[in-house]
UniProtKB/TrEMBL annotation, chains A, B:
Pathway connected to this protein: Alkene biosynthesis; ethylene biosynthesis via S-adenosyl-L-methionine; ethylene from S-adenosyl-L-methionine: step 1/2
Gene3D superfamilies in the cross-refs: Aspartate Aminotransferase, domain 1, Type I PLP-dependent aspartate aminotransferase-like (Major domain)
First-level EC class: lyase
Superkingdom: Eukaryota
Name this protein carries in UniProt: 1-aminocyclopropane-1-carboxylate synthase
Keywords, in A-Z order: Ethylene biosynthesis, Fruit ripening, Lyase, Pyridoxal phosphate, S-adenosyl-L-methionine
Catalytic activity: S-adenosyl-L-methionine = 1-aminocyclopropane-1-carboxylate + S-methyl-5'-thioadenosine + H(+)
């Protein structure tokens, strides 16, 4: 007897592609996976610059672990705690964990604000935290505004299983991609015309992919906007500790404690240790809400994505070591600043500009619009393919972040060692110099050649959709 | 300026009570929390017998950890792996983890079946796994059949955020709560009359709360049923390794590899290390589906509830140690059998019967119907309150499992040491003897007294709803 797979057997969610993985960006991952760079074994392989990972300070972490064997329930020194921790399953989390996280969140924000451990709700990474917040705040069909360019994971996390919509708020290079009141109003009015109920505004500060932070005036204007409209404000601050130079990071927590009119029930922070500590594998996500009902509901929902108690225990010990945390945060900023400096200087030598207001994050927002054949996203994708297949760097094209101006690329710089970064830099320099030397017609031809390699359908899929699927590899989904 | 909390600000899910925590069973947790038993410090406190935890073999685990320091990324011996593991975030999981889990699942099933590591999808406990399966298989409003009595967490896990319905399939004490074809057909037809589309059948084998396993004939009849109806079969086998005496456990994996007509695309197993290993805090849940599309979709959804890579690494090492695993499974069964024996014998001395077909699980299904004032759930709740407040044992009333016959109680026996179990037994004996000595009117009066303590609304809420909220403490939700 032969059975056919009947699609009605599965849910609409399972039959659809809201997960966003049927995206053209797969090409970059596939290319990297089949030919990854290795300094000795594969020096001509592709360098992975599409991962917003923070790998610069693991020596500090590993030293700390060696000196603190009691931090683990799997060491001689800590194993007597194993039983109690392995059976611990309270969705409030270990009290030590919540306290340590609350303290860490304050420290990362220069101790200008405090966080109440009782409002700290854990979840499976910021990924799980975002979905949970969306489930708490909006019904299917309702929407959040999101300034562009934005982290493509939002399309999956806030929308896929919740049925919630995202509406882009356009920002532009002419003012360094600032979020303006005008753009917010525009997006809000557009939604109204479409009969879509806007439930909130999602901001990401510091921004992935821009590497910029929001200034105080912008933050205040955002708070005024959401209060006037009576909609929620979700602030993803998972890059808070990566602000490596002046001006300093200003958390939304600082703004709402200012003398500003604000309904605190509307304000929610999403946080995680994936970027600031560099632990994406440990899946430590945090929702910090000023709204009691959201704290309570999110905590119940956290049952679907609790942090492993083994990990809670280790993190609690690590983050409650004040001296270590202070040193780690300082050193991490220093190393990020150095890396950022070397990289931008290297690019400047061949006249490549990056968004100059960037002073945070694990990436640069690189302007290659001057190298585009024409000012279109097709040309951006063509250039992207050249960068992957010829320059052999897996960077991310701006369109994957819903950027509305072609020619921008996000380049991650903290997921590799110094040597690899130098290789990457020299490849870029060689490419640009060669490209400048080459006459226009030739360059055009070469790019058109690359273009032909892929089916035009891929472009259509992508370019036609302002809220297109996210650029993630089916192989390594959550890394971005 | 004063702001009022506007309920429309939140989602319908957040405003509703689908989380199931507004339940009368909270009383038991509250009583336990405010007066927990301790052999020295509070010998007259309440003994917690409402937690299906497996605490009998932690000595073996702790010994293993001491002998295997490389299993942890937080030991001197293992710390060099820390960086690689902390940044590992592939939703396929560590290959070693998937392999070890697949091997373990086979071993637990007597190696009569094998599992393909590529079909092993991780998730945040069986809790997350169930929700994910529901999201994959059914649209809002569609339903799963579930034989009663059943684990109350299903009401939250499968329904709350998915909008999926559960329809009880009634089983009865007269045939030891067996799942019959007739009852399945009845429930299916009832759903049809209500215009509800049945998408699947959820079984829990071994059963919480019954402690029974399904025999081969019942399993075959279930497979025939779901194939005839072309609906899914989700088998929660998280108590697989707790089968401590003959007959042996038969996994659905064994049935579908028999010479039986079965569309494998319909069959999905949910598993977890919370019960068999006793690690609920580590949140290791597994979906094993024979349906490729479900594997692929569930894996994408697992982004919301990945297992901490630190925990994956440790579990991979532990479960790939064949000798240890063999010894652990054997020893665990031996200790569960002994505990079960002592407990049932102790109850038999005062003529309390338990479901006699039980040979699995971490609990007994105790028949106190003879002690009910009348054969109603009000009387069951009254007796339950006496057991909590006077006998000082926090057990779980049958109605919390949607049992359709009053008088049954689930009593967990593996979450305490021998001494505490003896205290619990002697309390039960004292109570029953006293109760037998006391004349009827007096007993009735006392119980009515207890009844008055709580508002009748609580009963109404609960008794009127066949799919009532789950009995979980807001304090310690996930423990059950
Ligand atoms: C802005 C932003 N939010 C959320 C996430 C997801 O983080 P997590 O690993 O904590 O799920 C990322 C990861 O790249 C991100 O850049
Ligand atoms: C039958 C059943 N399924 C699922 C669960 C949830 O298990 P986990 O801790 O893996 O989420 C439980 C917990 O009691 C259970 O008894």
């Amino acid at each position: 007897m032969v059975f056919k797979l009947n699609n009605h057997l599965l849910s609409m969610i399972a039959s659809g592609n809201g997960h966003g993985e049927d995206s053209p960006y797969f090409e970059g991952w596939k290319a990297y996976d089949s030919n990854p760079h290795h300094p000795m074994e594969n020096p001509n392989g592709i360098i992975q610059m599409g991962l917003a990972e923070n790998q610069l300070c693991f020596d500090l972490i590993q030293d700390w672990l060696k000196n603190n064997p009691k931090a683990s329930i799997c060491t001689h020194e800590g194993v007597n705690e194993f039983r109690e921790i392995a059976i611990f399953q309270d969705y409030h989390g270990l009290p030590e964990f919540r306290n340590a996280v609350a303290k860490f969140m304050a420290k990362v924000r220069g101790n200008k604000v405090t966080f109440d451990p009782d409002r700290v709700v854990m979840n499976g990474g910021a990924t799980g935290a975002h979905e949970t917040v969306a489930f708490c705040l909006a019904d299917p069909g309702e929407a959040f505004l999101v300034p562009t360019p934005y982290y493509p994971g939002f399309d999956r996390d806030l929308r896929w299983r919740t049925g919630v919509k995202l509406i882009p708020v356009v920002s532009e290079s002419s003012n360094n991609f600032k979020v303006t009141r005008e753009a917010l109003e525009n997006a809000y009015e557009m939604a109204k015309l479409d009969n879509i109920k806007v439930k909130g505004l999602l901001i990401n500060n510091p921004s992935n992919p821009l590497g910029t932070i929001l200034d105080r005036e912008t933050l205040r204007s955002i708070v005024r906007f959401i209060n006037e409209k009576n909609i929620h404000l979700v602030c993803d601050e998972i890059y808070a500790a990566t602000v490596f130079s002046q001006p300093e990071f200003i958390s939304i927590a600082e703004i709402v404690q200012e003398d500003i009119e604000c309904n605190l029930n509307l304000v929610h922070i999403v946080y995680s240790l994936s970027k600031d500590m560099g632990f994406p594998g440990l899946r430590v996500g945090i929702i910090y809400s000023y709204n009691d009902a959201v704290v309570s509901c999110a905590r119940k929902m956290s049952s679907f994505g609790l942090v492993s108690s083994q990990t809670q225990y280790m993190i609690a010990s690590m983050l409650s070591d004040d001296e270590f945390v202070g040193k780690f945060i300082r050193e991490s900023k220093t190393r990020l600043a150095a890396r950022h400096g070397v990289f931008t200087d290297g690019l400047a030598q061949v006249s490549i500009k990056c968004l100059k207001t960037s002073n945070a994050g694990l990436f640069l927002w690189m302007d290659l619009s001057g190298l585009l054949k024409e000012k279109t996203f097709e040309a951006e994708m063509a250039l992207w393919r050249v960068i992957i297949h010829e320059v052999k760097l897996n960077v991310s094209p701006g369109c994957s972040f819903h950027c509305t101006e072609p020619g921008w690329f996000r380049v991650c710089f903290a997921n590799m060692d110094d040597q690899t970064m130098q290789v990457a830099l020299s490849r870029i320099r060689t490419f640009v110099n060669k490209d400048v030397d080459t006459k226009k017609p030739k360059r055009t031809l070469r790019w058109q050649g690359s273009l032909k390699l892929s089916s035009p359908r891929i472009y259509d899929d992508f370019i036609n959709s302002p809220r297109s699927p996210l650029p993630q590899s089916p192989l390594v989904l959550a890394r971005n």
